[in-house]
Amino acid sequence: MQVLYEDNHLIAVNKTNSDLVQGDRTGDVALNESIKQYLKEKYNKPGNVYLGVIHRLDRPVSGVVLFARTSKALSRMNQQFKEKQVEKTYWAIVKNLPVPPSSELKHYLVRNTKKNKSFSFDTPRKDAKEASMTYITLASSDRYHLLEIHLHTGRHHQIRSQLSGIGSPIKGDLKYGFDRSNKEGGISLHARKIHFIHPVQKSPVTIVANPPRDNLWDFFLTQMDQDPKK
C-alpha cells in the first residue's frame, strides 16, 4: 500500500487496480480495512481506528483515493464533494483516438443494476441522468493514446461508458467494448490527481498518484516528463 498523503485529518493512498475501496459481498479485504490496520500499528492505537470513506473508485481502476481520519474531516470533505469543489483528474489509455482529439462530451446515462453497467445515449430518455466531461489527448504511442479527463458530473461508470459511447473504450475494459483484457488485470483508467481545500487547515492540497508500473504506462509517463506543459 502506497501512502501519498497523511496528516491528523486525512490520508490518501494510491489504489491498485485490484483493490476494493470498501468491503462487498466478495469478502475480500478492502482498502479501508488495510488502512485502519496501518494506522493502528503506526500509532499504536488501542481499540477501533476511525476511518471515513470520502469517495470511491471502481475496483479495476487505479489511483488516488482520499479517506478521513476524523468525523469533522469527513463531513467537511463530503460537503466539498457535494458542492463540486473537489477537482479530480483521470488518465485513460484508449486504442482508438477520439475525434476530435480533445472535446467536451455530453451523454445521457441509463444504469442497469443487474448488469452493473451504464449505457450512454445522445438524447434524453426515461430514467437517464445527464453526464458531461472534458477529455484532452496528451500523448500517443504507435497503437495507443493517453487521454486526460475532467469530470463535470459523477455518474456510475461515467468515463468508461462515455468513452465507449464515442468508440474509444478504455484498454482492458471488456465490459465496455475493449476486445481483450489487460495482462496485469484491471483497466487502463487511473485517478491521476485530486485537488481540494483542506477541511481544517483551509489550505489548498494537491495529491498526485503515479499509474501502475507496466511498459505502456511507463512510456506515457516518460512522454509527460519530457513535455513541461503537461
Q: What features would you describe in this structure?
A:
This protein is α+β, with helices and mostly antiparallel strands. The protein has a single domain (2-226), classed as Pseudouridine synthase (2-Layer Sandwich), CATH 3.30.2350.10. Helices cover 19% and strands 33% of the residues. The chain contains 4 helices and 11 strands. Strands 1, 2, 3, 4, 5, 6, 7, 8, 9, 10 and 11 form an 11-stranded mixed β-sheet that branches. The protein is globular, with a radius of gyration of 18 Å. It starts with a strand and ends with a helix. The model has no long low-confidence stretch (mean pLDDT 95).
Radius of gyration: 18 Å
Instruction: State the separation between the terminal residues, measured CA to CA.
Output: 27 Å
Structural class: alpha+beta
Mean of pLDDT = 95
Number of helices: 4
**Helical fraction:** 10-25%
CATH superfamily: Pseudouridine synthase
**How is the biggest beta sheet arranged?**
11 strands, mixed
Just give the CATH class. Alpha Beta
For this structure, the CATH topology is Pseudouridine synthase
SSE run: EEHEEHEEEEEHEEH
Task: Tell me what the CATH architecture is.
Answer: 2-Layer Sandwich
Spans of at least 5 consecutive residues with low confidence: none
Percentage of residues in DSSP E strands? 25-35%
Our count of domains comes out at: 1
* Total number of strands: 11
Q: Tell me, briefly, the overall form.
A: globular
